[in-house]
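For the sake of clarity, the format in which proteins appear in this thesis is described at this point. The record quoted next illustrates the convention:

___
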Amino acid sequence: MSWQPAPNNLHLLNNFFMHKSTISIDVYLDEQKVPETIKWKASDSSADAEQQAKAMMVSFWDGADKSALRIDLWTKEMMVDEMADYYYQLLMTMADTFQRATNQPELSADMKKFAQDFMKKFKTIQLNENQ
């Protein structure tokens, strides 16, 4: 016979075994509700102070609805070339995460190839526009 906690004490057991980490995000908006400043802090971060960011993406997977929920925000100061760099890095890290989660190296490599082609094409467009 195995030990089972009383149903009304299950939350106490979870608190005993689980570690809670908190990430807080503050978005400061202008009069038109456009982000001016994004600040964040994580309880398990090595950074003591609140960190500032020019852009953020947060996504959640709703398993019941089988859909991704996301928040994409960037400040007025985010430059177009910074956005391209940001997306390139996101695509590369998503490829790494996909590889770790699925053990599909070929698909991960395809994602990285797309990210590299994306950045190359962006730089070509930027050069042509700046001439």
